Amino acid sequence: MKKIGFAVIVGAILGALDGLTAWFEPAVRDQIGTIVMLSSLKSVFAGLLIGIFAIFVSKRVAIALFGLGVGLILAYLVAMAPDPKTGEHYYAQIMVPGAIVGLLVGYATARYGSTTTAATPA
Amino acid sequence: MSWLSDDALARLRSAASAPDLSGTRYRLIGEVGRGGMCTVFLADDPVLERRVALKVLDVPDTDGDLALRLAREAKILARLEHPGIAPVHDVGRLPDGRVFYAMQYVEGPRLDAFAATTRNLLDRLRVFQRIVEAVAFAHDRGILHRDLKPENVMVGPFGQVLVMDWGLAKALAGDEQRASPSSTPAGPHTGHGAVLGTPGYMSPEQARGEVSRLDVRSDVYALGAILRFLLKSDDVPRPLLAVCAQAMADDRDDRYPGALALNADVTRWLNGQRVDAYPESLLQKASRLYTRHKAAVWLIVTYLVVRGSILFFSRR
Questions:
Q1: Nearest-CA distance A111 → chain B (Å)
Q2: pLDDT of B254-311, one tens digit each?
Q3: Helices (H) and strands (E) in chain B, counts
């Protein structure tokens, strides 16, 4: 359970920071609140999946790659929604950083997340 | 004029000194090693069908100092049940009056031979930590080793590390009853002024013969000397040199307070953490943290580069 909590918290923080980078993009700056919230939610969900995966898999590389995949898929789902003003899709702008954030959450969970105590067989 | 070659003489001498095990359950296989007052033989125990090491006094010192010493060593070993200390199986007397004890036979090189063939620093440090754990256990049981050196440590083929030769071991002040209830506190051979130990591994107070001042920090000094020996041929990281220096401080008050504190500092270095013995600069701290979290740092840098590139190209 500690791993899940750790992954969710790391996901929330990194997701929020990732969303905040939208401030540097004048075209979407006025939507920064929504972007930060959605980005955080996406990463919290990614963290939840990564944390659950990390309970069953101990290999650091596997957890990091799982994080990469989850980040990529969730970012794709977000990128599918077009910009409400221009109707454009920002696949690369959302998916590439999203995948790296997933990779970071996965790596951080594997490297720094607390190990769960093995259950004693009855 | 010599009638026999040196080799033949040595064989004859070895055969003459071979113990008569007729009154015991053991069968002699051969000589393993020779110390100052004892010889260690490899023997077969047909009852339990295993090999044992027999430590036998060189002279039939039936009721004298040496016999007491060996019996005392066996009693101390019997109280130190730890994976890093060879267990005693039996104590007895040979038909010629010589005292002996049987202990676990450890196959493998001594620490000095192990160090000569093992270049990897981490492997050496892991072995060192096992030594420290065994010594810390003995300290907890109120026993000082007083003769820790590479020659008194065996490294088994499966990574077992055994601290040997407790012949100079001494009960700590206040622990005499717990450590050795049936013998004199410091043993008959360790009166004030007696210098016992090995130069280079002896603490200054031990070298001065200040027996009453000896405590766990004397063994900490020897452990520091062993660590220094293990680091000798490597490009030694400065924090580890600082650990050696603190363990081997001339003033015992400047040393680690115990073996576990020394071990904790070595563990901290192995984990990429700050070592207590080594005050580091900001740059050294940054370098250590970078080394410890290299992958995370590079992932963050990659993210920043990617994010920066996207912003840069989206504005063009």
A1: 9
A2: 999 999 999 999 999 998 899 999 998 999 999 989 988 999 999 999 999 998 998 8
A3: 11, 9
pTM of the full structure: 0.74
pLDDT digits (tens, 9 = 90+) for A56-75: 998 999 999 999 999 999 99
Which among A93, A101, A111 has the least Cβ separation from residue B314? Answer: A93
Break chain A into its structural domains and give their ranges. Answer: 2-112
Question: Using CA atoms, how far apart are residues B69 and B182, in angstroms rounded to an integer?
Answer: 12
Residues paired with B57 in a beta bridge: B38
Q: Do B306 and A96 touch (CB under 8 A)?
A: yes
Cβ-nearest to A108 among B296, B306, B314:
B296
Select from 1.10.10.60, 3.40.50.300, 1.10.510.10, 3.30.70.260 the CATH code of B111-270: 1.10.510.10
Asked whether the beta carbons of B53 and B106 are under 8 A apart, the reply is: yes
* A84 token code pair: 């409400």
What are the catalytic residues of B? 147
Residue A46 CB burial class (10 angstroms; 0-12, 13-18, ≥19): buried
On whether any CB of chain B is under 8 Å from the CB of A111, the answer is yes
